[in-house]
Signal transduction histidine kinase internal region domain-containing protein (Roseivirga misakiensis), 341 residues
Amino acid sequence: MKTNWKLIATHLLFWMLYVVIWSIRDMAYAPTFWDTVDANVIGALLYGSGVYINLYVFVPKLLLKGKRLLYGLVMIVWLLFMAYLGSQTFVFLYRNVSPSTSEFFGSAGGLASTAVEFMVVYALATSLYFINEWYIKERRLRELESQNLKAELDMLKGQINPHFLFNALNSVHVLIRTNPELASNTLEKFSDLLSHQLYEVEKDKITLEQEVQNLDNFIQLQKLRHQDHVQVNWDYSGVLSDKPIAPMLFLNFVENAFKHGESDLEAPVQIDISIEVNESTLTFNCVNSAKKKADDKEKSGLGIDNIKRRLNLVYPNRHTLEIDFKDNLYRVQLALNLNED
């Protein structure tokens, strides 16, 4: 993961300002400004640890999971603990610098003062944290809305194209005379496929079961088109129901695999496609034989780039995508963390 130096610098600036402002304030309790700096640097480390434990442990584990009452109780205990730890730390630090200040922090008033100080720092840091999170989510939402519109147009143009429609309908036309029952089943799959690509693509999330069914319809139609020229192994396993997923993440990869069946006419093409779901982890694999590695623009146009961009927006830090060509095999492996927490 790329280090966010800008965020780190912002946090460092926040704590530097804390040390300077509190050191100026504490000059009333010490002979010089520099006599207060050491104590406030240690105070920043102490309060900083309390703030970050709250932001990265208590907030995501309790508050963001809807456990508000438990979070409130934990914060009361945490506040009392930090106030006591802070007051005792300042008793020790000011013992030789200002005995009267050290005695003050050992009293009930000092404990209350430390508690208020921590609450001020905690409230300010937490507010800035949620403002930053809101800004990031708003920016991602705007970008995602724009990208979804582009993705919808790209997929409608790229998947429902005249060439695919002509071949699929022609195959059905032949089957009507030779195998009416199969023709009827094929038309049903074709109808479901068009319905999915026209309507489901507009949604942010659909069920994994719907996405797999759409992929199955597409594969069956492609097998019918290519017949003996393409050998397909297609399998899926795991629990598919009640698992939301962004639509049309796999279709581009599968379509590209079948494109080899059109380009390498002199040799049969082997395609292996699988989806495995293990609790909240999904692994998609697509492997096809190929004589040479196709140029990215020649092979997929904007399709793969669009999928990569959508993955970064919808599944940030929750996916891995590996694409490579080796030993005349073109491999795609996509792993998704379906857990939205």
In short: The chain has two domains: 5-138, 160-337. The two ends are 19 Å apart (CA to CA). Residues 5-138 form one domain.
